[in-house]
Amino acid sequence: MDNKSALFSKLVNHYRQKPISFHVPGHKFGRGFNPIGKSRYKDLLTIDLTELNGLDYLHQPKEVILEAQQKLAELVQADYSFFLVNGSTSGNLAMILATINPGEKIIVQSNVHKSVIDGLFLAKANPIYINPALIPQLGIAGCVDRQALADMLIQNSDAKAVLLTNPNYYGIGADLTDIAKLVHQYKIPLLVDEAHGAHFGFHPSFPASALVMGADVVVQSTHKTLSAMTMGSVLHVKSNFVDVERLKLFLSMVQSSSPSYPIMASIELTYSWIKEQGACLWEKQLDAISWLYENTIGLKNIKLITDIDKCYYKDPLKIIIQTKNNLFTGFNLQALLEERGIYFEMADLYNALAIITLGNSFRDVMRLKQVLFEIDNVISLSLIGSNEEMFRIAKEFTAIFDYNKGNSIPIEKVLYRRNISLPVKEAIGEISAKAIMAYPPGIPIINYGEEITKEAIEYLLLLKSKGVKFQGLEDETNNYIRVLDRTNIID
Ligand SMILES: Cc1ncc(COP(=O)(O)O)c(C=O)c1O
Questions:
Q1: According to a count of CB atoms within 10 Å of the terminal CB, is the N or C end of the chain lower?
Q2: What confidence tens digit (pLDDT) does each residue in 170-189 have?
Q3: Which residue would you say has higher pLDDT here, 245 or 442?
């Protein structure tokens, strides 16, 4: 048996013994699966098992799952590591629920993923939002400034935790070492949503992980930049300020009581592979990325972002492209790439973002280079004039979004009140009953309980005109928005 991936081996061995199953899951190794999908799912279904003797149980692990989690903790220098089968979403929920009591203050970076907002609601927390600095070069939010956080902590010395997202979706983040020291002076934990940094610390050219930089609880999506199946994620703890038993309780509440063994085994396989191969696992991809930068210098209209403001690090596995002078939006670039069979992770008004992982070959990157040159020519042939108006709207909104979070009422006063549907254009001045976001990245543009500003609506309509996919708007056409029924707003 392969002891390095003992959970995976146990699943495989169980099937090999030709057991007769009278338990769930009902497909029974795939035999009872719809024949149309059988050939695709075939091998995976043979290890899609349940909590049988010898296979341990995620929510009270004593054997093989516990050992796998302990090995992971050792690898990342955590006190405890936990497998998550419901994504970083479940990790963020549990992290907040485990550290904040109802009504307590938590200082939270304002541009967080919706799962953090949801966690704040479920915990009945009192969030105090802190705005990240903007990265003008990319037109996106960067990281929280240490001094701004220090000031915020002086004003809110009764806060019970600080929660940051580091890195952001684009792989841009800050060194958290000093921030962690600052937070610890208040004897409270630093919680970090590191969903996009699961690979950090495993190669010298990757940034250090938040945990190593001193964070107390860190959530990572193993399925995003590493190799686990979708939803496979992890949560690490290294802290004197966190009650681990309480954390375990909430982890079991926010995750399925039938955790997926293929997902858990894929998390285990990911880390046993890294442990065995070490940093050299990524050499091919990193070579390909260097090659891409060297061989795209000749692009006339497209630029690949290599240098970022020195107060940040940039994850080398994220490729950010823009058109020079913002000739085209990131959405335009993404569409042009897709027309040629290249699918990026996401786009925004300014940038298009690719993620390179262990799943990418040199050939993929060569094809990307070829397509970038093709698009470069298309762009020069079809000068579309100025996008000035669009960028004015975006900039005005970003200013409001980042610096005016105050005008809102608590989420719980929103979710339990009656709401009505209004055409988007008529909603200015109303209170939003939903969190509205482009997905990805899943960061609310208008949050629950926020007053809907003219700038936010203009920005929303702008994104809509670019074909952005939304969550939180009323209908499929995205023409309606849910707002609080004014007759029901008491305070
Ligand atoms: C910053 C951030 N945190 C958390 C999540 C949720 O991660 P998951 O998809 O693993 O639930 C995402 C998803 O995109 C994210 O971007």
A1: C
A2: 999 999 999 999 999 999 99
A3: 245
Q: Hey, which of 221, 235, 355 would you mutate to test ligand 1's pocket, going by the most ligand atoms within 8 Å of its Cβ?
A: 221
Q: Which atom of ligand 1 is nearest to the CA of 84?
A: 10
The mean pLDDT of the chain is 91
List pLDDT tens digits, range 3-42: 789 999 999 999 999 999 999 999 999 999 999 999 999 9
d(CA 202, CA 279): 6
Tokens 């020079």 map to which residue? 324
Positive/negative CA dihedral, 426, 428, 434, 437: positive
pLDDT at residue 384 greater than cutoff 70: no
Token pair belonging to 94: 């549990």
The tokens describing 80, both together, are 């405890």
CA 487–ligand 1 middle distance (angstroms): 36
Listed residue (297, 293, 283, 266) closest to 361, CA to CA: 283
Cα 64 to Cα 6, 54, 60, 260, 402: the distances in Å are: 7, 8, 11, 15, 46
